[in-house]
Design goal:
342 residues, MgtE N-terminal fold, 13-stranded mixed β-sheet, 14 helices, globular
């Protein structure tokens, strides 16, 4: 594929592309970009602690596109026609088979972002915040630069030095031997504007260890929103790794019916302990729902619906359902009833 077919900058930083819409040549939206796939060839020397050879940088083989139904599929780079700051244009040919990573492949976002590296100029360690890919003369794309933040290291812990960031060539750093990223800060920052359902989908595909690390970085309200979108086994996995005080706070931020569904998955002793730590009013709503058998209408109801009197105006109803703290499912129904309204 010659360069003349591309209306694309020669160098692109991946973090700026995440979430971009992918279109076919006719302008129809195919999905959103979620990751970039490179071959491990070129990673071997770096992981082994040796300086990567010039010209041996990892080759980009394709992108991961999230299509309808939150299914992630693979699109080869040979089918990417153009990339800019607002969109990605493809040839329109998409294999809708779910992406399965091969042993020879590495995910830039999933496996390189937030990875610790040793800088070969002797200035210390750093963490990968972003990765640049660049198109060669033959049309292939390869990893050329890393945007990193320096870290202070100790005997057993490390932390970023604030605002000390720099760009280094790929062959000027050596990857740590850890298979997974050591921190979740960059991932959370990169997904700050993601919808809870999208973030939950990304977390669901992670290992248990990584999932717990991400949860620890999220604010209570954000974590509650994400938990409500996750399968029960993931919810239990995350909640069981939080200290009891924080677990209770997160449950308070959840909708009562969702909190009850999660608590029913725990053993009796743990369930009661968390309910005792919750605010009494919040705990009472959840306890009421726990009295109903699982799967019954009572167990599925929301005890705090939007209730207005017959004298309320349409404007008042709209103001209620537009409140930031009102979830979409609850805003879909407004109860109009005569007093008493409680």
């Amino acid at each position: 594929m010659s360069n003349s077919k591309f209306s694309t900058p020669s160098k692109i930083y991946i973090a700026r592309l995440l979430g971009l819409d992918v279109f076919d040549p006719f302008g129809d939206r195919l999905g959103r970009l979620r990751d970039v796939v490179v071959l491990k060839r070129g990673l071997g020397a770096s992981i082994a602690g040796a300086r990567p050879a010039k010209g041996s940088e990892p080759i980009v083989v394709g992108i991961i596109v999230e299509v309808l139904g939150k299914k992630r599929v693979f699109m080869p780079m040979t089918r990417v026609r153009s990339i800019d700051a607002s969109q990605i244009i493809s040839t329109g040919l998409v294999n809708l088979r779910r992406f399965e990573q091969r042993n020879s492949e590495t995910l830039i976002v999933g496996e390189l972002f937030d990875r610790r590296v040793r800088l070969l100029d002797g200035s210390g360690d750093a963490v990968i915040e972003d990765v640049a890919i660049e198109q060669r003369r033959n049309g292939d794309w390869g990893v050329t630069e890393l945007f990193v933040s320096r870290v202070s290291s100790g005997s057993s812990t490390w932390r970023r030095r604030s605002k000390e960031t720099l760009i280094v060539d790929w062959d000027e750093a050596v990857l740590s031997t850890d298979v997974e990223p050591q921190a979740a800060t960059a991932f959370v920052a990169n997904h700050e504007n993601s919808k809870p359902a999208d973030l939950a989908d990304a977390i669901h595909e992670m290992s248990d260890k990584r999932m717990v690390e991400i949860a620890a970085e999220l604010q209570d309200e954000r974590l509650a929103d994400v938990l409500q979108e996750l399968p029960a086994e993931d919810q239990v996995q995350i909640l069981s790794h939080l200290d009891d005080e924080r677990a209770a706070q997160v449950l308070e931020e959840m909708e009562p019916d969702d909190a009850a569904d999660l608590l029913i998955e725990l053993d009796d002793a743990q369930r009661e302990k968390l309910l005792e730590l919750m605010e009494p009013d919040e705990a009472d709503d959840v306890r009421r729902l726990l009295e109903y058998d699982e799967g019954t209408a009572g167990s599925l109801m929301n005890p705090v619906p939007i209730i207005l009197s017959p004298e309320a105006t349409v404007a008042e109803a709209l103001a209620h359902i537009r409140a930031e703290e009102i979830p979409p499912a609850m805003a879909a129904a407004v109860m109009v009833t005569r007093p008493p309204l409680e």
